Amino acid sequence: MLAIVACMATLYVLIMGNLLFVSGRTPGVNYQYNLVPLETIKSLLFEKNRYHTEAWVKNLFGNIILFIPLGIWIPWLFRRYRKILPFTGVVVLLLFAVEVIQLITRVGSFDVDDIILNTMGAWIGYIGFAFFIFSQRRTRN
């Protein structure tokens, strides 16, 4: 089972790498970034009419949904990240690294709110994983 999970996690990493750095991405000349927490999120929530529906959904929900699997793969593959604080720490560091790579390569954009939304998605996956583990332990007893 662990080998299957590892293969699925590898496939997930490859797909995400393509989405984040390759597919439809070209280095921008006029690079934008956001270092103010909740600035983009507030704009998406309270100024919804400024955005096309597709862009609004992708930015708000896509950043959450795409990272739910991260919350499953990390604690499943690495026991030391099965507690919430170490898990959150490694997720935030990983997401920060992705944003910095986007900043350096000018592919995508550095946005601290992406880290917040992506972390929320990972937490949702983590909660799902925790419920799965809890239910497995209950059925064994």
UniProtKB/TrEMBL annotation:
Keyword Ubl conjugation: no
Segments forming domain VanZ-like: 11-132
Keyword entries, A-Z: Membrane, Transmembrane, Transmembrane helix
Annotated transmembrane regions: 60-78, 85-104, 116-134
Short name of one Pfam family: VanZ
InterPro entries: Teicoplanin_resist-assoc, VanZ-like
Protein name per Swiss-Prot or TrEMBL: VanZ-like domain-containing protein
